């Protein structure tokens, strides 16, 4: 097996057994990243010299017995919104950003775990947008079909992992920005519970919705990254006491008897038949693994999504107000169309939307999670659209597009629940489709265990795109 076809877990074991060195691994990844660079536009910058030097140090440390952990010497690249001291992150924008005065906590933790960052990845402008469009640096292309969207806003994160040019990447998820690209690119992506992972040193968009999480080949790989990045951080007061956990603990345990809830309302009529078929097949596989599938009725998710839209627009507008005044002409139309709505939302409307979160989450806990352990829904209700189909401006067109791209993910973000996108099949035209597993707060380990069991019984996550 080529090292590029290996999962993060397999690469970690190969390094531990000294079947490959970090230098050899880095060379292979850099060559691959450069080979697919023009086709996919997933990478914004690669620092070959620094990466190779870091790999040599990692090998020397390993041979001297100074091993930092299972990620020691593993190459990774991340979305270009995680700050590193002395480096200028683009945040996907044409507006010149200042040099960072600190390193993001999650990057510092990956550094401490021995991972080596070799580049930064394309993303939607200021992480606004589920399509992954970026008119400044060029759209990131889907490795399975370059005419289709790579998903957003963590477009380069998903595309690079799918293209076998990256073993794992950090992304952010405000309304679906990890799960959507993971689904359409055929990789695994975890949006952790709100407060699980520090956002200090990370570009913000909506402070009460933003989360940071991993995209990788497998659920096991995501758990490995979570073990490195999760935990309480004094620089992010939203990090919770429950943040510290071993996400690999029990991941190999049976999922027999776990209750999987399938909603009978809200989204069912809007799901394309091709997506429904794939999701039904994934449910049958979970039943083969001895999960108990249970019909459930969700609370008023339309009201939840409406509240989420209010919170996103208001907080996004507040964060960008000064910059919009100074550099408004450098924002693209889609981003302006979404942010400017926040300027006309009355304060009481925003406050009511924020307060409603606790009510809605409590209702979910009482009505849904009293009956089931996880909820099983699509990530997207439609097959992956083309870049042209989603290249819209403001008004009704953007509302329609957003409804399709974030309607099944944004409500989960608003509630603060964890959610995992797992490759579940392919459409007839060869595009991957993910299933979304939603859990109780801080139940990432359960989601990862189900995802790991599912991937032990299927091979969707092992399939790789044929990139010209």
Automatic annotation (TrEMBL):
<feature type="domain" description="Amidase">
    <location>
        <begin position="24"/>
        <end position="448"/>
    </location>
</feature>
<dbReference type="GO" id="GO:0016740">
    <property type="term" value="F:transferase activity"/>
</dbReference>
<dbReference type="InterPro" id="IPR020556">
    <property type="entry name" value="Amidase_CS"/>
</dbReference>
<dbReference type="Pfam" id="PF01425">
    <property type="entry name" value="Amidase"/>
</dbReference>
<protein>
    <submittedName>
        <fullName>Glutamyl-tRNA(Gln) amidotransferase subunit A</fullName>
        <ecNumber>6.3.5.7</ecNumber>
    </submittedName>
</protein>
<dbReference type="InterPro" id="IPR000120">
    <property type="entry name" value="Amidase"/>
</dbReference>
<dbReference type="InterPro" id="IPR036928">
    <property type="entry name" value="AS_sf"/>
</dbReference>
<dbReference type="GO" id="GO:0050567">
    <property type="term" value="F:glutaminyl-tRNA synthase (glutamine-hydrolyzing) activity"/>
</dbReference>
<keyword id="KW-0808">Transferase</keyword>
<dbReference type="InterPro" id="IPR023631">
    <property type="entry name" value="Amidase_dom"/>
</dbReference>
<keyword id="KW-0436">Ligase</keyword>
